[in-house]
Write a structure and sequence with these properties.
- By secondary structure, this protein is mostly helical.
- The protein contains 17 helices and no strands.
- The chain has helices spanning 2-9, 16-47, 50-77, 80-103, 109-138, 143-171, 175-184, 186-194, 210-225, 228-243, 247-257, 263-286, 294-311, 317-344, 351-364, 366-379, 382-411.
- Helix 3 packs antiparallel against helix 11 (247-257).
- The chain starts with a helix and ends with a helix.
Length: 414
């Protein structure tokens, strides 16, 4: 009976290709979060500047901001499995280089910036490709379940990775975080090699020329602009992602400034954020038969903004953990529902381009958000940054929800 219950709750795992892909990601994502924590702490040790930390995040996501739109036509034309084998290998190599310079004691700020920039270029292709591949691996009927399981894996890693990284940094230093991340890529590489090769994309025979890429990019933007079911959630994600979801910049500084914390406390704050996110992902997966809901998008964005603002109004460590857990729960409720909604409402031949725009607004605008958060913290404090950012997210959600409601009222027959 328990086996039947699990199969009923997580039907996407009954698909062999998705199951292999998901297990590989479970391994790799723990290492990714360890590197995120290690890199943030390394930059703070090297510079002592929240602005410099924000600059690293900005540089890392700059390629996605500039080139994500043009990645979509490539993703729609190339076999996604082969593309991911290349990008995942490159990510493993970058983690190994960062581990080497850190363990050798020669790491400098400019080196971290360069590696972050190259990482950004690789992720510009890797992230939307992984997202667009999910529906091919799990099937349309299991898409919401698959996206929720991916989110659960991501946030379970957010629980484990920061906690382990914080303990490792306190005990033996930052370098092992990067080394373990490099080794973790063996999981997804093995999974990708075991997955059945996908059929050649329908657009694969179209020549890849600058003219065709620009034309395909314009088609993707026009496609989104003409479909309110895609345009409004992507717009809200762009605003909230830019001004609220700057956790990797704000939380380490909040831990240092307001909680007088070390790497261990920072790690556990991120673990609390991940714990709430993981609970939301599991909840969404178990209720995935209902499909993505508009109410979950609006409620998640509202709740995330409120919890984040409340975190900045107090200075207690355990209350901060509780509020960040709430922030994480609401963040995943919003982003996972938005991701599934956008994919479900996209045609197959346009999904790569739609998800490249999704990646742009969710991650590609991070340079703007990181610089905004870093400068605001430098000018005021981490607490003020949380309060202001939460307020922006709250107002943006109410405004978009009001516009959508008004549009529906106008469109509704008398």
């Amino acid at each position: 009976m328990p086996q039947l219950s699990l199969r009923s709750a997580f039907p996407a795992l009954s698909q062999r290709n998705f199951r292999l892909f998901w297990l590989g990601q479970c391994v790799s994502l723990v290492g990714t979060w360890m590197q995120n924590i290690g890199q943030a702490w390394l930059v703070l040790e090297l510079t002592k500047s929240p602005f410099m930390l924000g600059m690293v995040s900005a540089i890392q996501f700059l390629p996605m901001m500039l080139f994500s739109l043009f990645a979509g036509p490539f993703i729609d034309r190339l076999p996604k499995r082969r593309l991911l084998l290349v990008t995942q290998t490159m990510l493993m190599a970058l983690a190994a280089i960062l581990a080497a310079i850190t363990l050798a004691g020669v790491a400098q700020y400019w080196m971290v910036l360069v590696l972050a920039l190259v990482l950004g270029f690789v992720n510009t292709l890797d992230i939307p490709t992984r997202q667009a591949m999910v529906i091919e691996l799990a099937g349309r009927e299991h898409l919401m379940n698959a996206i929720s399981l991916n989110s659960a894996a991501f946030n379970l890693a957010r629980i484990i990775g920061p906690a382990v990284a914080g303990l490792l940094i306190a005990a033996i230093g930052i370098g092992p975080c990067f080394l373990l991340n490099a080794l973790s890529f063996l999981g997804p590489l093995a999974a990708l090699l075991a997955i059945d090769p996908e059929p050649e994309p329908a657009t694969a025979r179209e020549p890849v020329s600058p003219g065709n890429i620009l034309r395909s990019t314009r088609e993707g933007l026009y496609y989104i602009a003409c479909r309110p079911t895609l345009f409004w959630p992507i717009l809200l994600l762009a605003i909230v992602g830019t001004f609220v979801i700057n956790y990797n910049v704000v939380i380490p500084t909040f831990a240092r400034q307001e909680l007088a914390g070390d790497a261990t406390r920072f790690g556990f704050l991120m673990t609390a954020l991940g714990g709430g996110s993981f609970l939301a992902a599991i909840t969404l997966a178990a209720r995935s038969r209902r499909g993505p809901q508009v109410r979950a998008q609006a409620g998640g964005a509202l709740g995330m903004s409120i919890c984040f603002a409340l975190t900045g109004l107090q200075h207690d460590f355990w209350l901060s953990c509780l509020l960040l857990a709430g922030t994480g729960f609401m963040t995943i409720t919003f982003t996972a529902s938005c991701n599934a909604w956008v994919q479900m409402n996209s045609d197959d031949h346009m999904r790569g381009r739609v998800m490249s725009v999704y990646a742009l607004v969710f991650g590609g605008l991070t340079p703007i958000g990181s610089l905004y958060a870093g400068q605001l913290i430098d000018a005021t404090s981490a607490s003020v940054s949380m309060l202001v950012s939460g307020g922006i997210g709250l107002l943006a959600t109410l405004a978009v929800a009001g516009l959508v409601w008004r549009r529906r009222q106008v469109a509704a027959p008398d």
